[in-house]
Amino acid sequence: MSAALAVSFAAPLALGVLTTHLLWPGGGGGRFVRVVMGAGLGMGISSCLFFFWRMLPGVSAVWLFAGEWAIVAGLACCAALRRRGAADTVAPAVRGDGAILLATAAALALGAAMIAVGCLGTPNGEWDTLAIWNQKARFLFRGGEHWTDMFLPGMDRAHRDYPLLVPGAVARAWTASGADTATAPMILSGFFGLATAGLLCGALRLLRGDTRGLLGTLALLATPAFVAQTAFQYADVPLAFYVLAGVVLFAAYERDAGRSGGIMALAGLAFGLGAWTKNEGLLLLCAAAGARAWVTVRGEGLAAWR
Questions:
Q1: Which pLDDT belongs to residue 290?
Q2: Is 141 within 8 Å of 173 (Cβ atoms)?
């Protein structure tokens, strides 16, 4: 993996973690949950930024990456000013048995190893990856002014209607490294697989205790389809991450005494990025918004929902 490719993933991670920190400050979240969630959200945000840049003809990619780091710097300044102005509320530590925490760490490490072996076994992914996701990424990376040809009628069998979060994230990494190698989509897919398992672990640990966090992680990593979908580089795993993040944020909002609007904004961002990942995500976005509206109006009234 080239240094440029490694560095290219730093900005999305920092962008997402800082955004999550600012919108979900202090108590109630658990640092591990917020970091893992923020990292995944940052990957989606960077995909959106890449797409917006791609729509600007003749603008150098240098401006894209400089703009990303400028946003990161601005968010870091906001975080520093807020910390200086008011002490951050620290969530109460979730204490648990050391053996359970060690077993959880071992489970995540084993999951990372399984995902790595699977990705190395199918470095170019399976059919959907070749025909849809990486093909669209190559249009974005190689297409120049003709990248929109992916939407022409002749591209029906490549599902020209599919959203572009995964292709955008892959093409962004290729643009940073200067070559469309198999390494970037492998890293991205492996990241989302491990991040989904880590987010599930952290959320269950926060809400229900260490033991359930471990059991939930083991159940997910013991599901052959999950590891296979990750190794195949399919978009179903990133979609699962964003849906899980949205559900976790709904639960965090209910536990938050101040009912912070920032948490609900992050939930909207998570479900929105899910809609930018697969067509099914658009349905889930509408379902989540409708269900949230129904619960709020029925329990607290229209004013609370507004």
A1: 94
A2: no
